Backbone:
C-alpha cells in the first residue's frame, strides 16, 4: 500500500537503509511508523521475507560489501559505519554470511549485488497473485458522482479514449480532481464500464453521463500494473471468502449486480515499474 500499511513498510525499509550506522529495533520502528510491534513485525516479515533483525543485519552487511568494494576505508571504519560495535563482531557476521573475511572479500575485488527497496517490493508483489497485494486497507467513501462515458466492459480502452477526447474538449462541470475512476458493473456474464472524474453535484455538462455510487466501505487493493491483472478477480474473491474480520461483498443494487471501482491517482504511471492502480471492492459486515 503505497498508502496504509504497505506504504509504511516501504518507508520503514528506506528508513533502515538510511540509518544503518545507528541502533535500530523493531519496537522503535513500529512506534515510528505507528504500528503495534506485533503487527509491524508480522507484516514486515511477510514483505521482506525475513525477520526485522535478520533484514537489518543483512542490509548492514550489504552496505559493508559496497564500502569494501568501492572504497579504501579501513575494515574497522566500515564496521562502525555499518552499525557493528567492533571489527571482531563485524568479521564474525561477515564470515558467517559470505564464507570469507572482509579483507579477503576486498582483495578478491568482489562486487555486491544487493536489491534496492523498490526491487524488494517488486519481488514481494511477484510472490502474490500476479501483482495484487492481498492485505487491503478498508476505506469509507460517501456517495460519489462520477461524470464520464459508459460502454461495453469488453471494450474498456475505447471507452477511455472516448472519455479523454470529451474531457480534453469540454471538462466536466465541478470536477473535484484529476484522479480517474473506472466503475465496472457486472450483471451475470455481462459487464458495463463507466469511466470519468468525480464531480460535485449531478449537473455534469453536455455529453457526459453521471453514475452515482452509494456510500460504502471498500476493501482497497493495490495492484502493480507492470505485473499484470490476470489473477486480480480470483485473488479478491479469495480474500472475501477468507478474511478474518467477516467482510462480505456489498452489491450494487437490489437486482444483485456486482461492481468494483478502479481508482487512478498520481501513483498510476502507465506500464512503468511501480505503477499502481487501486481496486475498490464494496464490502459490508
Residues:
Amino acid at each position: 500500500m503505497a498508502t496504509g500499511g504497505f506504504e509504511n513498510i516501504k518507508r520503514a525499509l528506506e528508513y533502515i537503509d538510511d540509518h544503518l550506522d545507528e541502533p535500530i529495533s523493531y519496537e522503535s520502528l513500529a512506534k515510528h511508523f505507528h504500528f503495534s510491534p506485533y503487527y509491524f513485525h508480522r507484516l514486515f516479515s511477510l514483505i521482506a521475507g525475513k525477520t526485522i533483525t535478520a533484514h537489518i543485519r543483512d542490509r548492514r552487511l550489504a552496505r559493508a560489501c559496497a564500502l569494501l568494494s568501492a572504497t579504501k576505508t579501513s575494515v574497522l571504519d566500515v564496521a562502525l559505519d555499518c552499525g557493528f560495535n567492533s571489527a571482531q563482531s563485524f568479521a564474525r557476521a561477515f564470515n558467517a554470511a559470505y564464507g570469507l573475511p572482509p579483507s579477503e572479500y576486498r582483495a578478491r575485488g568482489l562486487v555486491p549485488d544487493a536489491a534496492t527497496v523498490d526491487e524488494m517490493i517488486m519481488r514481494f508483489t511477484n510472490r502474490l497473485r500476479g501483482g495484487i497485494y492481498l492485505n487491503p486497507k478498508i476505506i469509507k467513501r460517501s456517495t460519489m458522482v462520477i461524470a464520464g462515458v459508459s460502454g461495453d466492459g469488453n471494450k474498456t480502452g475505447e471507452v477511455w479514449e472516448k472519455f479523454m477526447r470529451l474531457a480534453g474538449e469540454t471538462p466536466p462541470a465541478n470536477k473535484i480532481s484529476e484522479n480517474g475512476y473506472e466503475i465496472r458493473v457486472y450483471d451475470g456474464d455481462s459487464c458495463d464500464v463507466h469511466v470519468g472524474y468525480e464531480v460535485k453535484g449531478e449537473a455534469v455538462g453536455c455529453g457526459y453521463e453521471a453514475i452515482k455510487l452509494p456510500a460504502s466501505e471498500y476493501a482497497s487493493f493495490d495492484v502493480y500494473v507492470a505485473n499484470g491483472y490476470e489473477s486480480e478477480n480470483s485473488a479478491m474473491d479469495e480474500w472475501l471468502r477468507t478474511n478474518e474480520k467477516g467482510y462480505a461483498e456489498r452489491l450494487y443494487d437490489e437486482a444483485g449486480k456486482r461492481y468494483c471501482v478502479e481508482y487512478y491517482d498520481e501513483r498510476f504511471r502507465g506500464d512503468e515499474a511501480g505503477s499502481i492502480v487501486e481496486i475498490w471492492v464494496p464490502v459490508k459486515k
About this structure: The mean pLDDT is 85. The longest strand covers residues 175-187. The longest helix spans residues 52-70.
